[in-house]
Amino acid sequence: MRYTLSLAGLFLLIFVPLSAQYEDVPTFEDTLNVYADLFYIKEPLNLTLKFNLKEFGKTRRDEKYHPAELTCHVTDSFQVTHPVRVRARGKLRRDICTVPPYWLNIRYSGIEAEDLQDVVKMKVVTRCKLTAQFEYYVLREYLVYQLYNLLTDYSFNTRLVRIKYIDTGRKMKEAEDWGFLIEPNDKMAERNNAMIVDSDKLSIRTVNKEIMDKMAFFCYMIGQGDYSVTGQHNLRILALKEYGPTGFIPVPYDFDYVGLVDAIYAVPGEQLGITSVKERYYLGACRDKETHQRTINWLASYQDEMVELIMNFEYLPENEKLDMIDYLGSYFVDAERESFIDYKIDPTCR
Fold first, then answer.
1. Can you give the residue range of the structural domain that contains 127?
2. CB neighbour burial string for 167-203, b if at least 16 within 10 angstroms, e if fewer
3. Three-state DSSP class for 339?
């Protein structure tokens, strides 16, 4: 049987320590040993993306794909390049960003990895503008996904990437940036033995109560006031394939507008009546105090782990990490107040 070295496998070898067995070119069998961990390995992928960034910027509002070359650097002496396509995505960031988030389309890349056979495209989040602070926004948003991974498997996995861009439209000008890949919808659902539900008829009353409450308090903690079950705005809805009492499961994504990231371009919805995304606004369902308190206690049990995750993240400056921890800490201090539910949760619950 003839095997072809897969892009997925190469992704996963990029920062995996190469032991004596990898002294030569990695074999197909070598890639299989690590390729299932694409969104679990914490070390960044080392990638180069070569395409016409100048043209991409001009047409970022169009539904247009641009041909590109994606190079995966396995070691200093071993790399593989595949043809891919990129297309801008998003709403506000598509309008304001020099390099908006984009789709990385791998359908015609010649990838023969079994795990990616049904994957057409993956989301990539990268730095919006070429300043240091916008680089920090990417890393902070990545950490928000990591924080939610701590709480539940009903969440999107992500993989940090270090990307070198080569702009064929500007005489091969190079720029290097942080970014991250977001687990494809279907892969997230498959991991949870579930399927994606596309329906505008669902509401906050039709999803699993316990999971909805936990998600709503997490979103309140991070300052996320921009999501809705109806219309699935910044949420995906899962239904488990096996029969059971779980019901529909909300899975949040797209965290660049949250207070924990605190992007300069992020503004709260006018209907909320707040002036900053750092002001928290509860969008969950109304429950009795005992139910709310159980959820508050559950989230508090993860406080130390969340702080540790942020502090151990080596790619973000110390002051940025401390700012994130201070913001989370302000929630936990507030949540311990006797009047917290009466004054912060009940007035805006749905």
1. 7-185
2. bbeeeeeeeebbbbbbbbbebbbbebebeeeeeeebe
3. coil
Residues 180 and 111 in one domain: yes
Domain count, the chain: 2
Q: State the pLDDT at residue 119.
A: 83
Q: How far apart are the first and last CA of the chain?
A: 58
Phi-psi category of 304—alpha, beta or left, where left has phi over 0 and alpha has psi -120 to 50? alpha
CA distance 32 to 168: 34
Please name the amino acid found at residue 234. Answer: N
Q: Are residues 261 and 131 in the same domain?
A: no
* Residue corresponding to tokens 């043209």: 55
Q: Tokens at residue 309, please?
A: 């995750």
313 domain residue, yes or no: yes
Q: Do the Cβ atoms of 53 and 169 come closer than 8 Å?
A: yes
Domain check: are 175 and 298 in the same one? no
**Does the structure show a pLDDT above 60 at 5?**
no
Residue type, position 251, single letter: V
Contacts of 349 (CB under 8 A, 6+ apart): 282, 284, 285, 286, 287
| Angle, helices 289-300/318-335, rounded to nearest 10 degrees | 150
Indicate the helix (H) or strand (E) that contains 100. none
Instruction: Taking residues 215-233, report their average pLDDT.
Output: 95
Nearest to 161 by CA among 146, 147, 182, 175: 182
Distance CA 87, CA 51 (A): 11
- Contacts of residue 308, Cβ cutoff 8 Å, sequence gap at least 6: none
Q: Alpha helix locations (H) across 99-184?
A: 132-151
CA distance 167 to 140: 26
Task: Please give the pLDDT value at position 48.
Answer: 94
Considering only residues 190 and 80, tell me which one the structure prediction assigns the higher pLDDT: 190
pLDDT at 144: 98
Q: In 3-state terms, what secondary structure has residue 194?
A: strand
pLDDT of residue 111: 63
Which band of pLDDT confidence, cut at 50, 70 and 90, is reported for residue 31? very low
